[in-house]
């Protein structure tokens, strides 16, 4: 029968094992204690040389004009409607289609690097970092997050919104991490101005191309209406001459009673007395002359707008792809276009005023309402490296690693002779 081991003896064996473990640790206490202290001090020293990272944040408001202001909602150029929410709604933000069209531009790393090169707050070292850190669209997009009037979490409330309420991009959450507080602040400010410039360029590009196309089309359409009106005027004049000839040939027709039954169908008016027809023709001719005068005025206005937008369209290719430069060109060409014109003439003054209103609309939207409403912050504390976490992690990590090393060394000393003995080599 197998011999059983008493329980007390098993307990005693366990106690001996624990004592041996503590004995090993006590024997290697200097290695563990001083090794842990050395590793901790080394981690503190290394953390002093790790570059500090600072994070700046800001909220950049994308502005539009108030749609309740008739001065802006009645702007001549339809390309500016992307700036406005629907009528009777005072709102801040740009339309989602305008933002989506512009997003492809400000996600372009080459364009961003080119725009950053014009910023006087950035030095050559900053530019080198930009060329290294912004090589793809994702490198830019991760720091620029649009904020919508109604987010996905608000979907349940959409059904309760008024019909004239629309979603838009009201601003941007901007952030950046750099090795100095001022650099992080400069980059966030650069992001805000850069996105504004992209939106401005898209708006002005559409404003010029649409204005050039619409004004030329308006001139051609007005000319066709003028031609048709001239023809109607000629036809009515010839008809009046014919009726006067009838009166000469039939002098008694002047005495025909005007109150008589006539046909209401087309051509029934000819059964009226010649005198009555002459009065009607004179009235129609007066209306045609007034219409013709209005059409000539509209043509003159459309021609002046076509001349201005044609010059803008031709010069646009020489300006580059920056919104601020394009806006300066528009204002400069406007002043030059009307420099030698008579502003006391009502048509000239009207076109000048309409263009001024467009410029004011754009300026209000992009230079007054587009701004930082929060930040960009200049951080006081760095976010990386966290010295306390580094010290704690290195202290605990080195402590446990040295305990394991102590047991390894103890095992090696206990089995070194056996492992290195000739007999063990032969067996191997």
DSSP helix fraction: 55-70%
- Radius of gyration (CA) equals 43 Å
State the shape. rod-shaped
**Residue ranges: pLDDT <50 for 5 or more in a row?**
7-11, 65-75, 84-90
Task: Specify the biggest β-sheet.
Answer: 5 strands, antiparallel
Number of helices: 14
Which band does the percent of strand residues land in?
5-15%
Number of strands: 5
Count of domain modules = 2
- Mean residue pLDDT: 79
Would you write up a description of this structure?
- The chain is rod-shaped.
- It is 64% helix and 7% strand.
- Strands 1, 2, 3, 4 and 5 form a five-stranded antiparallel beta sheet that branches.
- The chain has helices spanning 7-27, 29-49, 70-73, 96-106, 109-116, 124-133, 137-141, 155-158, 181-249, 274-316, 323-337, 346-368, 387-420, 422-427; strands spanning 54-61, 94-95, 144-148, 168-178, 371-374.
- It starts with 6 loop residues before the first helix and ends with a helix.
- The chain has 14 helices and five strands.
- The model is unreliable at 7-11, 65-75 and 84-90 (pLDDT under 50).
Labels describing this entry:
rod-shaped, 428 residues
Short account of what is shown:
This protein has 428 residues and is an alpha+beta fold. 21% of the residues are buried.
SSE order and pairing:
Layout: H1 7-27, H2 29-49, E1 54-61, H3 70-73, E2 94-95, H4 96-106, H5 109-116, H6 124-133, H7 137-141, E3 144-148, H8 155-158, E4 168-178, H9 181-249, H10 274-316, H11 323-337, H12 346-368, E5 371-374, H13 387-420, H14 422-427
Antiparallel strand pairs: 1-4, 1-5, 2-4, 3-4
């Amino acid at each position: 029968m197998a011999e059983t081991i008493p329980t007390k003896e098993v307990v005693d064996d366990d106690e001996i094992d624990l004592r041996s473990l503590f004995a090993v640790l006590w024997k290697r206490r200097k290695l563990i204690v001083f090794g842990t202290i050395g590793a901790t001090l080394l981690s503190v020293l290394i953390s002093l040389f790790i570059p500090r990272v600072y994070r700046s944040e800001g909220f950049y408001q994308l502005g539009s004009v108030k749609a309740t202001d008739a001065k802006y909602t009645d702007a001549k150029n339809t390309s500016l409607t992307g700036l406005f929410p629907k009528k009777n709604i005072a709102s801040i933000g740009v339309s989602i289609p305008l933002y989506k069209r512009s997003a492809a531009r400000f996600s372009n790393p080459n364009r961003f690097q080119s725009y950053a090169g014009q910023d006087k707050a950035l030095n050559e070292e900053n530019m080198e970092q930009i060329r290294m850190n912004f090589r793809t669209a994702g490198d830019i997009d991760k720091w620029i997050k649009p904020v919508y009037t109604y987010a996905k979490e608000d979907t349940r409330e959409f059904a309760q919104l008024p019909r004239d309420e629309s979603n838009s991009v009201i601003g941007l959450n901007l952030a950046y991490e750099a090795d100095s507080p001022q650099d992080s602040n400069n980059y966030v400010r650069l992001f805000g101005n850069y996105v504004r410039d992209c939106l401005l360029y898209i708006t002005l590009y559409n404003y010029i191309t649409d204005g050039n196309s619409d004004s030329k089309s308006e001139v051609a359409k007005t000319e066709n209406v003028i031609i048709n009106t001239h023809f109607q005027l000629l036809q009515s004049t010839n008809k009046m001459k014919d009726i006067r000839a009838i009166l000469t040939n039939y002098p008694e027709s002047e005495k025909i009673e005007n109150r008589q039954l006539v046909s209401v169908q087309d051509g029934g008016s000819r059964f009226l007395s010649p005198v009555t027809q002459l009065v009607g023709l004179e009235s129609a001719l007066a209306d045609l002359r007034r219409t013709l005068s209005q059409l000539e005025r509209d043509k003159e206005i459309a021609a002046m707008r076509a001349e201005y937008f044609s010059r803008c369209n031709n010069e646009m290719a020489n300006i580059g792809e920056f919104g601020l430069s394009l806006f300066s060109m528009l204002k400069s060409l406007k002043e030059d276009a009307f420099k030698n014109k008579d502003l006391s003439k009502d048509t000239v003054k009207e076109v000048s005023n309409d263009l001024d209103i467009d410029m004011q609309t754009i300026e209000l939207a992009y230079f007054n309402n587009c701004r930082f409403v929060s930040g960009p912050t200049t951080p006081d504390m760095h976010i990386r490296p966290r010295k306390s976490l580094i010290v704690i992690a290195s202290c605990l990590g080195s402590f446990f690693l040295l305990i394991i090393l102590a047991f390894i060394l103890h095992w090696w000393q206990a089995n070194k002779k056996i492992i290195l003995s000739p007999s063990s080599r032969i067996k191997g």
